[in-house]
Amino acid sequence: GVFSSDEVIRKRLLIDGDGAGDDRRINLLVKSFIKWCNSGSQEEGYFQYQRMLSTLSQCEFSMGKTLLVYDMNLREMENYEKIYKDIENSIAAAHEKISECKKQILQAKRIRKNRQEYDALAKVIQHHPDRHETLK
């Protein structure tokens, strides 16, 4: 089928990753190698040889950069996992604290209810004469 230029560009970017030109560099390297093999004069051969070395060093640099980015991404993932675990632990601790506070509230309500009952009983008792008066 016929590809539109957008599709070709999209495919190139997908193959090339971040668009650093590795695909193009490898093609250049192959072309330089073929030119080097077919070079007539020693001078042209030396020029093609230097060109290949330059392209190779660019590829190595790009590969090194990619590896560094990869390592950095791994470390970032580990860091995010640690943060995620810390947040999970904080949430669990907060839930424990909430349930503990609920228990304390229930206990406080019980104590308050008991005090109100004691106060009501005390008022009733105060209306009656004490033992000493009753015995008289």
How would you sum up this structure, described in words?
The protein is 88% helix and 0% strand. The chain has 136 residues and is an all-alpha fold. The protein has one domain (3-125). The N and C termini lie far apart (120 Å). The mean pLDDT is 86. It is found in: Nucleus.
Q: What's a concise summary of this model?
A:
By secondary structure, the chain is mainly alpha-helical. It contains 4 helices and no strands. 88% of the residues lie in helices and 0% in strands.
What is the overall number of helices? Answer: 4
Q: Span between N and C termini?
A: 120 Å
Strand content: under 5%
User: What is the oligomer described by this structure?
Assistant: single chain
Largest sheet: none
- Principal-axis shape equals rod-shaped
Low-confidence stretches: none
- Strands, count: 0
Average pLDDT confidence is: 86
Alpha-beta classification: mainly alpha
Question: What is the percent of helical residues?
Answer: over 70%
Radius of gyration: 42 Å
How many domains? 1
Q: Write the element-wise H/E pattern from the N-terminal end onward.
A: HHHH
Organism: Cepphus grylle
Family: Belongs to the THOC7 family.
Subcellular location: Nucleus
Coiled coil: 77-104
Summary keywords:
136 residues, rod-shaped, mainly alpha
Topology:
Blueprint: H1 5-16, H2 22-37, H3 42-127, H4 131-135
Family: Belongs to the THOC7 family.
Keywords: Coiled coil, Nucleus
Subcellular location: Nucleus
